[in-house]
């Protein structure tokens, strides 16, 4: 009986460790390249066409992970956001992310824990939205890629069928850095662009360090430094 009890305990411990390990893992995705030096924004030409991003059909998604589970949600996109195309090719753009319009999707809106988490994320420990209501991503380079030549990470949290590598300056709070990631970019009709991307990024690169790994935090309470971010964008020529 004692041997069976020990065996059962070993299975329970192994299962618990496996669960914690799986919950602690960031979503499977490609890592964004992050560099401290911001890139130069390209100048517009006479051939440049401005397409306005539709906030109602676009969003920035996020997934945060901790040992006991994960949360996911969206940020809204401000109506002044736009993409630039030239001769049918995406060349630039500016996406203004409304950090105050953060939503948590994995907790029912009627649940008081939803409002509690939203308030926590808006607070000084995370995004400090009263001081920094927006973040801005300014595209500096768009490069067509052959998906067969890049290492694609399969999974629902990765870019599906990447067609381009996008580089731009992300300004969040008081930090601005250049980031690069793969995206799927299409033009379903003249004067319309659809772009989507999913990638992992280290939140501490932008001073979002609350309960970060490597800090003096109890292991069961830390929040993974790696966050999965997604862009789902629809832009059309202004009517």
Compact overview of the structure:
The protein has 239 residues and is mainly beta. It has helices at residues 2-24, 112-122, and strands at 33-35, 48-53, 59-66, 69-77, 82-86, 89-104, 134-144, 164-172, 175-189, 192-202, 226-237. Strand 5 (82-86) and strand 6 (89-104) form a beta hairpin.
Task: Name the features.
mainly beta, 11-stranded antiparallel β-sheet, Lipocalin, 239 residues
Describe the structure.
- By secondary structure, the protein is mainly β.
- It has a single domain, classed as Lipid/polyisoprenoid-binding, YceI-like (Lipocalin, Beta Barrel), CATH 2.40.128.
- 14% of the residues lie in helices and 44% in strands.
- The chain contains two helices and eleven strands, in the order H-E-E-E-E-E-E-H-E-E-E-E-E.
- Strands 1, 2, 3, 4, 5, 6, 7, 8, 9, 10 and 11 form an eleven-stranded antiparallel sheet that branches.
- Strand 3 and strand 4 form a beta hairpin.
- The radius of gyration is 20 Å and the shape is globular.
- About 8% of the residues have low confidence.
Tell me which oligomeric state these chains represent. Answer: single chain
Under CATH, the homologous superfamily reads Lipid/polyisoprenoid-binding, YceI-like
CATH class: Mainly Beta
Please give the domain count. 1
Radius of gyration, in angstroms, nearest whole number? 20 Å
Report the end-to-end length measured between terminal Cα atoms. Answer: 78 Å
Helix content: 10-25%
- Helical stretch count? 2
Indicate the proportion of strand residues.
35-45%
Shape designation: globular
Strands, count? 11
Protein name: Lipid/polyisoprenoid-binding YceI-like domain-containing protein
Pfam family, one: YceI
Domain Lipid/polyisoprenoid-binding YceI-like: 50-236
Organism: Bernardetia litoralis (strain ATCC 23117 / DSM 6794 / NBRC 15988 / NCIMB 1366 / Fx l1 / Sio-4) (Flexibacter litoralis)
């Amino acid at each position: 009986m004692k041997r069976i009890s020990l065996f059962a305990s070993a299975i329970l411990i192994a299962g618990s460790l496996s669960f914690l390990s799986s919950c602690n893992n960031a979503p499977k995705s490609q890592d964004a390249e992050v560099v401290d030096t911001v890139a130069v924004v390209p100048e517009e030409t006479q051939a440049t066409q401005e397409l306005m991003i539709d906030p109602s059909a676009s969003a920035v998604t996020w997934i945060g992970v901790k040992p006991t589970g994960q949360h996911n949600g969206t940020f809204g996109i401000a109506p002044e956001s736009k993409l630039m195309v030239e001769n049918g090719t995406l060349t630039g753009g500016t996406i203004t992310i409304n950090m105050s319009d953060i939503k948590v999707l994995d907790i029912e809106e009627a649940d008081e824990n939803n409002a509690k988490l939203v308030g926590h994320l808006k607070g000084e420990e995370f995004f400090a939205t009263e001081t920094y209501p927006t973040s801005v991503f300014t595209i500096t380079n768009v490069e067509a890629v052959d998906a067969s030549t890049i290492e694609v990470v399969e999974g629902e949290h990765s870019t599906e069928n990447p067609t381009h590598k996008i580089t731009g300056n992300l300004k969040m709070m008081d930090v601005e850095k250049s980031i690069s990631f793969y995206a799927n970019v299409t033009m379903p009709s003249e004067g319309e662009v659809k772009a989507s991307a999913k990638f992992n990024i280290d939140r501490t690169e932008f001073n979002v360090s609350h309960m970060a790994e490597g800090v003096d935090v109890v292991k069961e309470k830390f929040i993974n430094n790696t966050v999965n971010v997604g862009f789902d964008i629809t832009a059309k020529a202004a009517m």
